[in-house]
Amino acid sequence: MMQSKTIFTNFFAMAVAGNLFVVSVALGQTSELEKVEWANTGHMTIDGKLEAGIHPQEYGLNVEYLDINANNSYVYALMTLVSHVQRGKVSEGQMKWLYERAIASAVPRNYIEEFMAFDHRKASLEQYMVSSGGDSIARVLLYDTAQMIAYGDRYDRRHRSSNAYREIYSKAAKILEISPGLARSIVTIVKQEVRLLEKKTRVFWGETPYTPPKQ
After folding, report:
1. Are 70 and 13 in contact (CB under 8 A)?
2. In CATH, which of 3.40.50.10240, 3.30.70.100, 2.40.110.10, 1.10.3680.10 is domain 7-28+38-202?
């Protein structure tokens, strides 16, 4: 168990009044008049600024760009934590969730391929951990951990007991040194979102299944 306050390098870093207050690097908003040179990988500038992608909608993060290296470190931290709380296992459905989230986050495909090849079983939590700074990233990491497991299980059509989920999320919260009350609030958000997705699936496709366009 880590003794010091833990926070993972990430792609979520928060900016307040133009000043960064967490350890990871977010690059904030840029002027629309500023000339942008894009890398040939797409969704990323030549100096490593990653388009914010889904982050403003998914996390309420008010930035236009994120640092690609911090983003990658966060993803490896997430995979390592999910693996750690599941005894070295990350399911096919959980990897599918991660793959889709990386696409929605505008991550270039070459980095996504590296995520898919990452050996989470041999990774060390400490390798991606920084023991200083604020709590925001630890909170988001617990949120993503719960999402990756819950949505992954949904893809896998795997059903666990409430106690099984509670034990896994509690273990992750302890590693991140998040209080039980706050951890419950974060996990509750994920539960509500899973139920909302199930409702949308029923409303949108229950009576009118999707039909791909004819080629």
Report:
1. yes
2. 1.10.3680.10
121: its two tokens: 């079983």
Residue 139: which of 196, 188, 197, 211 has the closest Cα?
188
Asked if pLDDT for residue 208 goes beyond 80, the answer is yes
Q: How long, in residues, is the chain?
A: 215
C-alpha span between 153 and 95 (Å, rounded): 10
DSSP string, 172-194: HHHHHT--HHHHHHHHHHHHHHH
- Strand-pair partners of 15: 20
93-146 tens-digit pLDDT: 999 999 999 999 889 899 999 999 999 998 887 777 653 234 688 899 999 999
Distance from C-alpha of 105 to C-alpha of 200, rounded to nearest angstrom: 22
Domain spans of the chain? 7-28+38-202
Biggest alpha carbon–alpha carbon distance for the chain: 58
| pTM, rounded to two decimals | 0.78
Name the token pair of 141.
């990491």
Q: Say which residue the tokens 């997430």 belong to.
A: 78
